[in-house]
Amino acid sequence: MSPGLTRVLLRPTQLPAKAGALPLPVLQRKYLGMENLMFVYCSSKIIWTLLVTILGYASSLPVRDDSICTAEELAKYSIIFTGKWSQTAFPKQYPLYRPPAQWSSMLGVTHSSDYSMWKKNEYASNGVRDFAEKGEAWVLMKEIEEAGEKIQSVHGIFSAPAISSGTGQTSTELEVRSRHPLVSFVVRIVPSPDWFVGIDSLNLCEGDHWMEEVSVDLFPYDAGTDSGFTFSSPNFATIPQDTVTEITCSSPSHPANSFYYPKLKILPPIAQVTMVKLKKNQLGLPIPHLNQPAKSNEILDTISETPLDCEVSQWSSWGLCRGPCRKPGTKIRTRFVLLHPANNGTPCPNLDEETGCEPDNCV
């Protein structure tokens, strides 16, 4: 031992004599009490952290009614798509040729709330972009299949044939289950830059039963991937990509827009979809529960008439002053029709205007 150092031997039952010192058993009891408090505190902290995590995860999940669907396991529906895109209802720039107004095939899916085909005010997927711009379904079908494989959120895919005109009908059948009661689909507007109609996550389950029939009016949407204003606009990619937005009579607010009707409060429906629950007859064959429209491609419903005002160009420059020398002459300016009126819209004004002048360069 080094010089100047003194070894102090401690008895196991006491501490060195020091002001405020306590016997070891008392300290041991205090230490054990503090240890218990620390254990309770740490346990409470862990439980609270787990609770916050669970609640945060739950709050991030989609809130849909399909979680409480207690209807019978399986239901089948007939889905009927009716195009109402007529020249009477939508006279502005109505496509008559190359190509004429028409609808693409329908592509849809039955699913749970864990999947979304498209959603207003959110970005369209690559599959929805390809379908809305070109009518190509391959990428979108791959996206649907991958969602079904990963999280079992998709029950089935359905499709219906295209319609070769702006007005007409197409139909198919779909199947929903209590775990997959939502229906989504898209139909492309042809021709158009990236416009479509569709339904996002329509729930066919009402608590303990399936809806017997539901009809929904459809309005045009812009996929946010092409910046064209008119039905026949050339391809012009939107960079950066925009979100899916509804096209209205005043938005986009540009006179060149094919759906721009500033005198209207709301556009008439451009299409309608009806889903009817199927029942089995005595022979076991499914039949529509309610009467269906006639088996033709014609629309039996009345078509609204949208007034279309005449649109004319700006005035041209004044022409040369014509007339005899040293006498009053006249000059003319002209304009031309950009859009002819329809359905009792405002008629076109005069296309030429004349005013007096004094001839120049007289000899």
UniProtKB/TrEMBL annotation:
Transmembrane segments: none annotated. It comes from the Eukaryota. One of its GO terms (biological process) is innate immune response. Gene3D superfamilies: F-spondin domain (2.60.40.2130), Thrombospondin type-1 (TSP1) repeat (2.20.100.10). GO terms for molecular function: metal ion binding. InterPro entries: Spondin/Thrombospondin_T1 (IPR051418), Spondin_N (IPR009465), Spondin_N_sf (IPR038678), TSP1_rpt (IPR000884), TSP1_rpt_sf (IPR036383), TSP1_spondin_dom (IPR044004). Residues 65-255 form the Spondin domain. It holds the Pfam family TSP1_spondin. SMART domains: TSP1. It is found in: Secreted, Extracellular space, Extracellular matrix. Keywords: Calcium, Cell adhesion, Disulfide bond, Extracellular matrix, Glycoprotein, Immunity, Innate immunity, Metal-binding, Secreted, Signal. Monomer. Interacts with integrin. This is Spondin-2. The lineage of its organism: Eukaryota, Metazoa, Chordata, Craniata, Vertebrata.
